[in-house]
Amino acid sequence: MDGTFLRTNIEERQEEGTKVMSTLTKWAELVLQKKQERALTMKVNPIDCYQFHVKDLDKKEVVNLHTQECTCKEFQAEQLPCSHVITAAQDRKSALGMCKICARCVRNKS
């Protein structure tokens, strides 16, 4: 294998990496995008400054932004915000940002 090929390949990947604005992987970005679309259909009622009742069609879930938990358990299992958490964070206009409440395992390495 030619050293020029490897050097060119590495340079192309580095250039692509500099274009990435998110700290999340592409997979995590796509998953979050779908969850954000689903979150648009939900209704939210605050319990206190950290907890929220989120109504998703016929179900009600409770989100706690402080402990980063949702009663649907999806957030804890995937370590990515579920659509209920996204709805609650948007309602609170959370300064946390979605990237801060995503697990390290789905972030790009710096």
UniProtKB/TrEMBL annotation:
<protein>
    <submittedName>
        <fullName>Protein phosphatase 2C and cyclic nucleotide-binding/kinase domain-containing protein</fullName>
    </submittedName>
</protein>
<dbReference type="InterPro" id="IPR007527">
    <property type="entry name" value="Znf_SWIM"/>
</dbReference>
<dbReference type="GO" id="GO:0008270">
    <property type="term" value="F:zinc ion binding"/>
</dbReference>
<keyword id="KW-0863">Zinc-finger</keyword>
<keyword id="KW-0479">Metal-binding</keyword>
<feature type="domain" description="SWIM-type">
    <location>
        <begin position="50"/>
        <end position="93"/>
    </location>
</feature>
<keyword id="KW-0862">Zinc</keyword>
<dbReference type="Pfam" id="PF04434">
    <property type="entry name" value="SWIM"/>
</dbReference>
<dbReference type="InterPro" id="IPR006564">
    <property type="entry name" value="Znf_PMZ"/>
</dbReference>
